[in-house]
Amino acid sequence: MIEIILVTVALAVIAFGIGVVVYYKKSVKKHQTDYYALFMMGIIFTPAGIAIMIAARNIFPAGSPLFGLGIVYLIAGLAHRKEWKDSPSYKRRLFK
User: Fold this and answer.
1) How do residues 21-79 score in pLDDT, each as one tens digit?
2) What are the backbone angles phi and psi of residue 33, rounded to the nearest 5°?
3) Calpha distance 24→22 (Å, rounded)
4) For a disulfide at 70, which of 9, 46, 56, 65, Cβ 3.0-4.6 Å?
């Protein structure tokens, strides 16, 4: 009997979450993706993931998610390199 109550509560929470996401998506205006920031995050995440993998010797998957995210961010940033000039982080970069 308690399993049915737990499943019902879980489904209600999921339905509420989906409703909130749909409402938020409709009410928020669309913004431009900052691909230069994604590229910079990729530059930071990739070596950090490698360093964690080296530090955690026997536990290989320890840094794999960070390394994978870094590679994905690098690829996404480089694929949209032409849009860097419009991004706010590119305009505020440290070395011009």
Assistant:
1) 888 777 767 777 888 889 999 999 999 988 888 888 766 677 888 899 999 999 999 99
2) -75, 135
3) 5
4) 46
